[in-house]
Amino acid sequence: MKFDAKNRLIRILRLITFFGFAWICVNHSAYAQAICKFTQLSHVSNTRFTFGDIVIPRDVPDGAPIATIVFNLAYDCPINPPAYPLNIGGFSIKYDGALALATQFPGVGQFNTAYEGLYKYTGLRMTNMDTGQVMNPLGFTTTEWGTTITGANPVSGMIRMKIELIKLSDGIYKITQMPNDSRPPVFVVRLANRNIDDPAAHNRMVVTHQISGTLKPMQQSCTVTNSSPEVRLPPVGASKLNLAGATAGDTGFNIGLTCRAGSNVYVTLTDLTAPGNTSDLLTLTQDSTAKGVKLRVSQNGRPVRYGPDSRVPGNLNQWYVGPSASTSNIPLSVQYVADGPVSGGTVKGVATFTMSYQ
C-alpha cells in the first residue's frame, strides 16, 4: 500500500511538473509573438510613392534635387515586455536600403543603369525627418531608424521620410516621356520585436517608386523688353561725397519684362568689371576718371549684392522678384557712393543681370 501511494505521488508530481512547463512555454510564445503593425496594412506589405508631375528648372546642377516628397508610415505597437529568448522587450525601427549603385554624390543611390529614361539620369536620397540623418541608400545595409520603442505601454507613431529625386546628369533633359510603372524596391522599413533576433519574423514594409505624371524642363517664362538699359546719373559736386559712405544722385530705372504664368522669377546682378565681386558696390570701368567713388544699385531701398553670372537656382546673391504671372518690370535705383577721397571725373559702371525661372 505504501509502495502504491508513493508511486501515485510520483505520477502526480510528474503531471504537475509537466503542466508547469507547458504553462511557461505558452507564456514565452505569447510574448515572443507581439507584433508592431503598420496602421491599416497587412503583416508584410508593399507600398509605393510618386513624385507626380516634375518640372526641371533650367541649368539645375548635377547633385541637386528636382523633386521632393515627404513619405509617412504610421504604426501601432502593443505592450511587449522582456520575454524569451532575448528578454529585451520593446520594438525597434530598422531601415534597409535597397538601391543597387552608389553615385558621385554622398547619400545618393541609383537603380541599375540598364534602366533607360528617368533612372539612368537620376538618383534617390532618403532622409530621416526626425533626426536629419541621410540614410544609406544601398542594398544589404541596415540602419536603426531612431529611438527604441519601449514595451511598457502601447505606442502609436509616424515614420517620416524625405525622399528626393536627384539630378545626376544633363541627360535628364532629353527625356520626353515617362513609362507608367514601378521598379525594384527603394528601401524596406521593419518594425522589429526586440525579443526575437529573426528579420523574417519582423513586420516589414517594402517601398517602391511608382513612375507616373510628366517630366519636362521649365520653359523661359519672361522676355526682357529692354535688355540693355542705359542709366544716366545727374552731375554731382564732390562736396556732396566728402565722407566715406556718403551717397548722392539717386536715379530710378526699370528692367521691363513680358511674362506668362507658371514660374517664380529670380535675378542675379553681376559686376562685369570685377566678376568675382560679391559686395553691394559696383566697380567702375577702367575708362572712368573719377576717384574715390563707386555705384550702388538698390531694389525697393535695399542694396543689391553681386553674384556669379548663372541661372542656377540658389545662385549666390540671387534674389526673388515675384511670380511670373504678376511681374511686368523690376524697379531699381542707382546712386553714387563715396568709398574714399573723391576727385572729379566721369563715372561708369557696367552690370549684367541674369534671369532664373524656378
Question: What's the arrangement of secondary structure elements?
Answer:
Blueprint: H1 2-32, E1 37-38, E2 44-49, E3 54-56, E4 65-77, E5 91-97, E6 101-102, E7 109-110, H2 118-121, E8 122-128, E9 141-144, E10 155-167, E11 187-193, E12 203-209, E13 215-217, E14 222-224, E15 247-259, E16 264-271, E17 291-299, E18 302-303, E19 319-323, E20 329-343, E21 351-357
Parallel strand pairs: 2-12, 3-13
Antiparallel strand pairs: 1-4, 4-10, 5-9, 5-11, 6-7, 8-10, 11-12, 14-15, 15-20, 16-19, 16-21, 17-18, 17-20
Pfam family, one: Fimbrial
Keywords: Signal
Protein name: Fimbrial protein
For this entry, give a set of tags.
5-stranded mixed beta sheet, 10% helix, disordered N terminus, Fimbrial protein, 5-stranded antiparallel beta sheet, 2 domains, Bact_Fimbrial_Adh_Pro, 358 residues, Immunoglobulin-like, Adhesion_dom_sf, mainly beta
